[in-house]
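User: Structure please.
Assistant: Input sequence and predicted structure:
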Amino acid sequence: MISAFRFLAAGALALTAGVLPAAAQTEWKFNNSYAPARTESAFIREFVENVNKSGKLKINLLEGGAMGLKDVDALRWMQDGTPEMGFIWPPFLGRDAPDLASVYVYGSVTGPEEHLKALPAVKEILAAGIRKNKIEPIGFMGLSILNGTIFCRQPITSLADLKKYKLRVGTREQIETFKALGVAAQTVAQQELYSAMQTGVIDCALYPARIAHTISLQEVAKHVIDTGFPFPPAPYVVMAHQAKWAALPDDAKNAVKAAIAELEKKSFDFSGDIKNEADAREKLKAQGVTFHPDMSDADKKTIRAAALKTWETIAKETNSGENRTKIMQVLGLGN
């Protein structure tokens, strides 16, 4: 009886040791700090659904910052392995990976055609940088091409006009670029942008027309001009904890890879951006906004030259000159 009991106990222990760790590896958490209404969240939900339908891996998606994790800390919580998966936009990594944060700057590309041309090099740079932080980059999600429009309280038609006013931008590299152009540029927190424009703290703001309605910018800035350059469309990196990814069975990895392929196919399709931009502008026009003619080719050339110089400065500071050179060569912009 004792021998039989020991045999059964040993079998139970073996079963526990063999099954429980595997079960723990097949149920993962995915952190999404974005609100459920965001386009990115819709893409991620579909990705998770596709993985879960495979029956090879169960992913629990937590949206809207439900895990209380900050994007700026993404490399840190992803190294900890809680959650096992997540995604990040490279510009948020300025503290821990400044070389990845500046993979693109405003003025790097003129639109989807150039972006798609540079994308293979951009992906390669981001994947290597993420992997260097002991995190597995399992794929990418495209960021919509958002036109770099400027909203102003007064009519502007050129770069020369813009030099008369105080411009709000979103990042340090944008400050440097516009200052080099003779424009008084500064950052203002997004939640303070409406009141800053309303009270004259700023006169203009570099802001996408497509999402201006989310902060009611059209109520206080009725004049818009397109600069000819989108906001830096660096793709989001979908990440997994490296050791846990390595431990996944091949069939589970294949299910994730298949879902990633579908995510990339849909999110890097920019064909709808032109229509979405046009629709947004029509809505803004109906609310009294005037869209002035785009900046001239000469102004665009001037802006790009200043942006590339800013990029060069940042690349030296972050030891990412090779990354910049690689992308510049792909785009035919020299060194």
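Residues 11 and 193 are 65 Å apart (CA to CA).
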